[in-house]
Amino acid sequence: MPDFLVISAELAWPLAVLLAWLAGEFIHRWTRLPRISVYGAVGFLCAQAFPDLFATDGASPVSLLANVAFGLILFELGYRINLHWLRINPWVPVSALVETFATFAVVYLIAHLWGLPSMTSLLLASLAMSTSPAGVLRVINESRSSGQVTERVQHLVAINCVLAVLVFKVIVGFWVFQTSGSLTQAISHSLIELVASALLGAIFGMIVPAVLRHLGTLARDGTVAFALVVIILVAITHAADLSPVLATLAFGLTARHRRVAFTRTVRNFGAIGELMTVLLFVFAVSTLSWNNVLFGGGLALVLLLARFVVKTASVAAFAHVGGIPWRKGVLTGIALSPMSVFVVLLLEQTKNAGIVLVDELAAVAAMTLFMEVIGPIFTQRALIMARETAQE
Amino acid sequence: MPLETFNGGTPLTMGVELELQLVSFSDYDLTASSPDLLHLLARKPFPGNVTPEITESMIEINSDVHTKHSELLAQLHEVRDTLVTAGEQLNIGIAGGGTHPFQKWVDRRIFEKPRFQQVSQLYGYLAKQFTVFGQHVHIGCANGDDALFLLHSLSRYLPHFIALSASSPFVQGGDTLFNSARLNSVFAFPMSGRAPFLLSWDEFAHSYFAKMEHTGVIKSMKDFYWDIRPKPEYGTIELRVCDTPLTVERAAALACYLQALCAYLLERKEQPPAEDDYLVYNYNRFQACRFGLDGTVVHPKTYESLSLREDILTTLRKMDPYAERLGGTAALNHLMQVTHMGSDAQYLRDQFATSGSVEGMVDAAVRRFRGRM
């Protein structure tokens, strides 16, 4: 007789993904809420109900798949970034810098005043800088939105993700230095990792388009080639303790500027991309524990409110000079709400390096849960209010 | 409401309207950004007129009334530069071209304006499929009778304008094998095609228009999507068969060609227009759309088969003295070049072959509109 428990463990992930997908479809049809909010809620409930079945470590296949899913999304985001625009309209990068660093400062201040140690406050602040590309891009694709809020939010997300990774890694470097006393180890966990990751992505971003051009099958094979290279990039960065975020983003960015087309008809990398997204969002919250959420809940709410206000006000402040109405500026700021998936994967990756921060940062667990479920709803509402979503 | 009086104006004045594509630099698809662009353009004076079009991925620009090629071209340059600068500030590319090669009509949004919403209600998906981009040229007429005379006399030259402006070879991601696939979208509308053969404005207004209005099918001249239609409030006839060219230079040249042709026709040296001229009208129109300059047309009076390219070249030569008098020689030289080098449709196909993608084709169209290649 087969061991019932073993079968359950093997079935747990596929069943959770199926359940999340079904729930996402039904609830989206009834309420028009973003599907990914539902995936997150289902993932969290499953993980709390059967904690043993959903326990993963950084090396588990599920974690790797989640990283690949995130890599595909980051590639797509990188591919949409137009660096030329950031030079022509400097108010877009200026607003990104202001909203990102103002968020860092305000969150650090609040956490410090709340009584958290300096290093913990700094880490919290660096994580709060980011906006989740997964949440934002999926909502944009799901609602088929286009317009200035859509355009700006994508560029702001890319910029503040890069900045968040940079600042986070530098702080982790300091943390490593403080605890181990080794400067070499500290630098290898920050600067080298960042440069090597970006470089790796950029090199692939040059080679792949060149090969595709040589083959002469850009339109037909481009998407498959890009997806395969994203998988390879994630695997390499995983094995070499580099940043998959920077590598895949740099890959997309470079490929785009080599003028190679990522065919629009396969946005989200088609059906496989959709499937990976469900897994990614279920996975992201399965790593959280109810105790941490409860313990950090109070601070998380204060920090999220502060983050929301600072980001919205900062982006809105530069709206008029940047060429859009004030209202669209406010809505762009609101659309920057999601942050969860990015944070979870960043922390998971840090865990690979032997540093466990999730328990240290109980507030992060609560912030992640709230923002995985609520963040996409804010983005969706902002796009609807901006009248940038497709008419049904 | 009866049709308004024909406001006869200065003959042979000209004005140009261009429908333009708004392209996202993120993925080279059309972007529903006309409200954003119009908001930004409203902040400072615009050197002409800019208005929304039926879907939010399009805008229309109008020139003022001009008599000379150089003045028209100077204004179109100014309009283009203003648009390109505003577009760049919003990460929007502006492009000509009769169709966007891979946009999906289902993704388009109807502009929030009562008339567009009514059209959308009436025509269903045809309204979104109408995301095609044309150039309209207005020529001033002294009176309504002259307008109808020119309208019907020009029917024989219509294929020239289709072939010279053709810039819509791709639709919904694939090569249509047409040089101007745009006109097929226009043809789906019940009030499209040719105008009824009437040469007297009185008869047109009091008999035809009044009857049509009585049927309830139409309310104003705007409801007719004819290839050439009279525009009584402006005192012009409006040629509507041209695809929006990839450059403003070609747009100005086409307007001046029409101006010279009208000057020639008004001398009434050719046989007068007749209902039978329309026997070959749809066939000639199809040849121009499908094969462009390589098409073969049938002369409506002699039934002789003509190479469209040769017929254009002969006509251009015949128009030389008229163009010279009107200051449009450079315009005709430009079109002479087109007959040798190929149309914009040919250029777009070449770009597809070089870049390997439809996105590369859009990128090339955006750069060509800027006049930087």
Total number of β-strand segments of chain B?
Answer: 13
Shape assignment of chain B: globular
Rg of chain A, rounded, reads 20 Å
Overall geometry of chain A: globular
Q: Please report the number of helical segments of chain A.
A: 17
> How much of the sequence of chain A is in beta strands?
under 5%
Q: Helical amount among residues of chain B, as a percent range?
A: 40-55%
Number of helices of chain B: 14
Please trace the helix and strand order of chain B, writing H or E for each element.
Answer: EHEEHEHHEHHEEHEHEEEHHEEHHHH
Helicity range of chain A: over 70%
Backbone structural class of chain B: alpha+beta
Order of helices and strands of chain A: HHHHHHHHHHHHHHHHH
**Beta-strand content bin of chain B:** 15-25%
How far the N terminus sits from the C terminus of chain A, by CA atoms, comes to: 52 Å
Instruction: Look at the structure and give the mean pLDDT of chain B.
Output: 93
**Greatest interface by residues involved:** A-B, 37 and 31 residues
Number of domains of chain B: 1
Rounded to an integer, what's the Rg of chain B over CA atoms? 20 Å
Largest sheet of chain A: none
End-to-end Cα distance of chain B, whole Å, is: 50 Å
Number of strands of chain A: 0
Protein name (chain A): Sodium:proton antiporter
InterPro entries (chain A): Cation/H_exchanger_TM, Na+/solute_symporter_sf
Keywords (chain A): Membrane, Transmembrane, Transmembrane helix
Domain Cation/H+ exchanger transmembrane (chain A): 18-380
